[in-house]
Each structure stands twice: as C-alpha cells, then as structure tokens.
Amino acid sequence: MKLSALCKAANIAPGGAAGVADINVTGFAIDHRKVAPGTVFGAFRGAKFNGEDFIPAAIEAGAVAVVAAPDAKVEGAVHFADAEPRRLFARLAAPFFTPVPETLVAITGTNGKTSTAELTRQLWHMAGQRAASIGTLGVTTSGESVSTGLTTPDNVTFQANLTGLAREGVTHVAYEASSHGLSQYRIEGPRVSAGAFTNLSRDHLDYHATMEEYFAAKMRLFDEVVVDGGTAVIWADDAWSGKAIEHAKARGLKLFTVGTKGEDIRLLGRTPGGLGQKLEIDYLGQTRTIDLPLIGGYQAANALVAAGLVLATGGDANGTFDAMKWLGTVRGRIERAAISPAGAPIYIDYAHTPDALEAAIAALRPHVAGRLIAVFGAGGDRDQGKRPEMGRIASEGADVAIVTDDNPRGEDPAAIRAMVLAGMGEGAREIGDRRAAIGEAIAEARAGDVVLIAGKGHEQGQIIGSGETMRVLPFDDVTVAREMAGTLGGK
Ligand SMILES: CC(=O)N[C@H]1[C@@H](OP(=O)(O)OP(=O)(O)OC[C@H]2O[C@@H](n3ccc(=O)[nH]c3=O)[C@H](O)[C@@H]2O)O[C@H](CO)[C@@H](O)[C@@H]1O[C@H](C)C(=O)N[C@@H](C)C(=O)N[C@H](CCC(=O)O)C(=O)O
Ligand SMILES: Nc1ncnc2c1ncn2[C@@H]1O[C@H](COP(=O)(O)OP(=O)(O)OP(=O)(O)O)[C@@H](O)[C@H]1O
Ligand SMILES: N[C@H](CCC[C@H](N)C(=O)O)C(=O)O
Ligand SMILES: [Mg+2]
C-alpha cells in the first residue's frame, strides 16, 4: 500500500515530506527488531526504553517512515511528528490493517473485563455470529484460544489480530481495554461501536499516581475511543458509575445502564441456586427471569453488561436473554476444579485485587454450609498498597485464610507475604509454597466447607525473578487442585 494512500485514508498530512506518494509500505512495527524494508516504525518514549534511540537502526533495517515526537531526530525517512505519536501511529496503521470485523466493542474497568468480553463472545456465538474475544485469555474464538502475553496487546499485534480474524470470517469482536492499554493507545485505530465500564477499585497504583488518574486513563474509552454516536454500556451500581456516566454524556454517546440502579437493564432480584442463580430483570418495562448457570453476584453483573453490549450493537432481546441460560464458565473465574475427599468443592478464581477478593468470597458464601477456606497471595512488582487490604478482606471474609505466593517476580516472596499478613487478624496462616498451601486447604476441608484458591485463575505459571533471572515455573491452580484432591482420595 502506498504511504500517500494511507495518509489520505487516515486524514493525516505527512508534514510536507517529499516523495510520500511513491513510497510503498509493507508493514508497521513499534520494535526496531521487527522492522523490515518498507516498514513504518513507531518510536515511542516508554517506561524502560526511549524508542527514539532505535530510529537509526530502524532506518538502517529499511524503515521508510517514522512516527515520533516532533523533536525526535529522523534522518533518511519520512518523519510523522506528533506530541502523541502513539495515537498518530495507530491512526496511520488503521487503513493498512483491513479488513476489520464490522462490530467491535471494548470493555474497561478494574475487574470483570475478561469475563464480560468472553460472555459477550459467547452470546454472539449463540446468536449465530462469527465472534471472538481478545484479552487476558488471549484471542478466543469458538474453536481456540491463543495467548498474546498481555491483556491488551500492543497496537500492531492488536490491529493485525483484528485483520486476521476478519479474514477468517469473524464479524464481531469484544476486547479488553486495560488502563495500560488505553493510556498507551494500544487499542486505537479501528472503529469501536460500543464501550463498557464495569467498575473501578484499587489496582495498578504503581503505574497510575492516583485513583483519579487511573479512572481518567479508563475514561479515554468514552472520551475518545468509541465512535461518535456510539454507545456506553455502564454498570450503574459502582461508586464510580456516576462519573463514568458523566463522561459518556459529555461525549454525546448513547447511554445504556445496567444494574439495580440501571435504567436499561434493571436488576430486580437475584437468587443463588445450587450451580447458578436466578435473575429477575426489567427490560423496556417487561419483567423477565433468567436462569444463569454461573454463580456469584459479580458474574451476574458481567453477564448483564455483556447482554447490554450485544443489545447495543443490534442483538435481539428475546434471543439474547434466552441464551444466557447456556453461558459457560469463563476459564479461571469461579471455576470448579475438583471435589475434596470430604466432599468440599474447590473453586479457582482470578481475584488479585481487594475488590475482586471480596467479590469472589461473596460469590461463594451462599454455597458454604460450613467454613470458607481461602488460599490467596499478591503479585510481586505490582501495586504494594493492595496487599494489606487483600489480607484484611480475606481474614474478615473467609473462615480460614492461608497466604501463599502468587508470581513473586523480582521481589522477596516472604516480604510480599509479610505485607499481606500485616492486614490480617489472628489465626492467619502462611504457607509460601503454593502447592503445599493448596494441599493443606484441601486436606483440611470437611463436608459443607468450600475451598477458594484465588489470584491465578487461568495462569499457567509461577513467575519467579525478573530480568535476566526471570523464570516461569509451570503451575496451574486447576491441575494442582485436582492432583491434590486426587492424591487425598477426592475427585
Ligand atoms: C509498563 C508497560 O505497560 N509496559 C509495556 C509497554 O512498554 P513501553 O511502551 O513503556 O515500552 P518500553 O519497553 O519502555 O520501550 C519503549 C519503546 O521502545 C521499543 N523498543 C524497545 C527495546 C528495543 O530494543 N527496541 C525497541 O524498539 C519498544 O517496542 C517500545 O515501543 O509496551 C511494551 C510493548 O507493547 C510492553 O511489552 C510493555 O509491557 C510490559 C512488559 C508489562 O509488564 N506490562 C503490563 C504491566 C501490562 O501492560 N499490563 C496490562 C494490564 C493488566 C490488567 O488488566 O490488569 C495489560 O494490558 O496487559
Ligand atoms: N464485576 C465484577 N465486580 C467485582 N469483582 C469482579 C467482577 N468481575 C470479576 N471480578 C473479580 O475479578 C477477577 C478477575 O475477573 P476478570 O478476569 O473478568 O477481570 P479483568 O478486569 O479482566 O482482570 P485483569 O485486569 O486482570 O485482566 C474475578 O476472578 C473476580 O474475582
Ligand atoms: N494483569 C494483572 C494480572 C495479575 C495476576 C496476579 N496473578 C499477579 O501476578 O499479580 C497484572 O499484571 O497486574
Ligand atoms: Mg482481564
């Protein structure tokens, strides 16, 4: 594709550079090691590196244009200059990455992005659409799931994935917009019909200075990313929902609110059952009952937001609400892994924030006749302030709380556990080795008890060390829970 055609399609002036018309563009890269002849290179100032340092090497490798800050030094290639080069790069790349699926929706919020994206995909699939989700679980279609390593992949991977999916015939994609992804313009480019906000609570305060800054990063979804005239689907029951609604209104988006305070899908009642729950909702003045085969108030919220996204993008109401009774468990989100020898169910959940841990405990509480035994930890090289809060929530909410390791990364695991334990009352237990901690919880469980293993969900490894010494030791909570239950005589 000619660079001039890209500029025209993206409505970008190439800054008076001569010869743009004749330049052939063969691809886009943000890492100079991926530059080939004909590539447009995005040189960004990052947390670890200054991409501008690699401009000469990128040009040497054949970059024909460089998107970078105005004061970057670009010699021997066209310089697309902008104070926000990541955004300009995404816009310039968008016409290159075609086709794209017709219907794109993005989900932001501290917790519930993966679940909502995946449940949206399932609802579309059941409505006969070719659908995919992109997020923490990777790129998921009805046939397979391929990991990308990040929740929100970099912009080139993201746009290339969308084109790949469209070529396979996928027309509908729901994807997660993490705050890192939003603040780094990783998901900019294609046309996004609707955005959803699930909730906001403490996380990532190592990356964002304050909760307000963290919220502002998320609100770029409504302020800038969703297309003019698109829809904002908002979970209305969160403390930050009112502010999210203000952003959507200020931008002139259509509002679709969901929850007990929702105006579009109003949750009237929720009754937990054995393996699921009954939801009573009001939609357009009509009361409906939904048999949701997932447990927990949090998963009810995510399923209803997913339904909101489907309806906001043209889905049929009767079909969508009916299909909710067939929704499948999202991998690692209140997923039942095994039954202990004494008959206690063992659930795996991805709760790695205080609010999520509270939600996971609340999800299981109605199913506990005896004691709730929780095994949990906090990740290394991440927000430290959340650790004692997680400790407090586990010791208040669970009957037995065992602190263990969860991806210590570059930190001393014992020091992380000590910070978690600082928030816990008497009786807190500490077993660093995750396998041993899971084993102890399962061995201890009696009939009527429920075991919760929180923090790693779908993850397949324990990350130990950082930089050159980083190792990922294979570890899967579901497998370990089954092995431990099996060894002890459960199933
Ligand atoms: C803090 C953060 O988000 N970092 C991500 C970000 O880095 P950055 O833009 O700051 O880049 P950098 O590494 O400083 O490098 C600057 C630029 O130089 C380029 N470069 C760098 C080295 C080189 O040799 N050549 C070269 O061209 C890089 O490609 C980059 O464009 O962009 C990189 C390229 O896409 C990511 O790999 C990197 O993710 C790191 C590994 C990471 O751990 N990110 C986590 C925190 C993250 O993003 N998590 C979120 C949220 C999770 C959640 O949902 O809670 C996620 O979306 O996954
Ligand atoms: N709507 C919700 N409200 C409160 N907690 C939730 C909600 N949805 C999920 N959770 C909790 O958060 C955990 C992670 O859920 P999920 O993976 O869907 O969120 P996420 O936003 O994608 O997380 P991440 O930022 O790590 O990608 C769940 O296992 C659960 O404990
Ligand atoms: N997207 C989150 C995942 C955390 C998962 C948890 N197991 C941990 O390692 O803290 C993060 O990178 O902060
Ligand atoms: Mg996620």
Automatic annotation (TrEMBL):
Enzyme class (EC, first level): ligase
Q: Which residues form the Mur ligase central domain?
A: 107-309
Location of the protein in the cell: Cytoplasm
Which cofactors, by name?
Answer: Mg(2+)
Q: Name one GO molecular function term.
A: UDP-N-acetylmuramoylalanyl-D-glutamate-2,6-diaminopimelate ligase activity
The free-text function statement in the UniProt record for this protein reads: Catalyzes the addition of meso-diaminopimelic acid to the nucleotide precursor UDP-N-acetylmuramoyl-L-alanyl-D-glutamate (UMAG) in the biosynthesis of bacterial cell-wall peptidoglycan.
Instruction: From the Swiss-Prot or TrEMBL record, give the protein name.
Output: UDP-N-acetylmuramoyl-L-alanyl-D-glutamate--2,6-diaminopimelate ligase
Source species taxonomy: Bacteria, Pseudomonadati, Pseudomonadota, Alphaproteobacteria, Sphingomonadales
The gene name reads: murE
